[in-house]
Structure formats: structure tokens, C-alpha cells
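<purpose> Linking amino acid order to shape
<body> The protein record starts here
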Amino acid sequence: MRIDQFLWCVRQFKSRNLASSWCKKSNIKINNILVKPSKEVIINDTLQIRKNQMWRTYRITDIPAGRMGPKLVNLYISETTDKYILDKENLKKLSCRIERDPGKGRPTKKERREIDDLNK
């Protein structure tokens, strides 16, 4: 199966065209090699996808016949990304969360600059 079709089937991307464009942008690796959308995948390949400035690693366990429901995705791929990287990403998301009082409305221009400075 082609890599762009596989990524679409296991619900990593909403459309096959989007998966294909990510391959062309060098955001997909198979066995640590950047691939084109037409690259064939086989069982036990290591798949790396770069999303949100982070490389996530997966092991291909089976090839699907077609697109499936989200509950069945774990039968075809298993995530092997290091726990350290995932924890670091979760901490980053928690640290940049800004709490605003309910009903306070949109931030002013000054508040927006302060928020942007905190996120840098």
C-alpha cells in the first residue's frame, strides 16, 4: 500500500491529498528515510510523522484493506514515541495555557502582546 493511502486509512490525515502533500514537504519518514507519496509500506516498518514541530514514531503492525473507524486504528499501527518527548510536549501545552475570567471578552492589544511574550 502507498504511504499516503496508508496514512489516510489509519486516520493520521483527514484526506489522502493532505497526506500526499505532507510527504512532499518532507514531514514523513519510513525507516529514517524521507519518502515520496508513492513509497510502498510493509509490515514492521518504522513510520515517523512530523506534526507540531515534533517527530512521532509508529510501528506498522498490519496493512488495512481500507479506511476504518478510529477504534480499529490500534490494530494497524502502534505508537513508539519516547515517553520523555510526549511528556515534554504535554508540559509545554500546560505551561502556555492562559486563563481568562469568564465574560471578560477579547484581550486588548496590550494584553495580546503580553500573552505572545509569554508563549515565546
User: Anything to note?
Assistant: The mean pLDDT is 88. The helical segments are 3-9, 16-24, 83-95, 109-119.
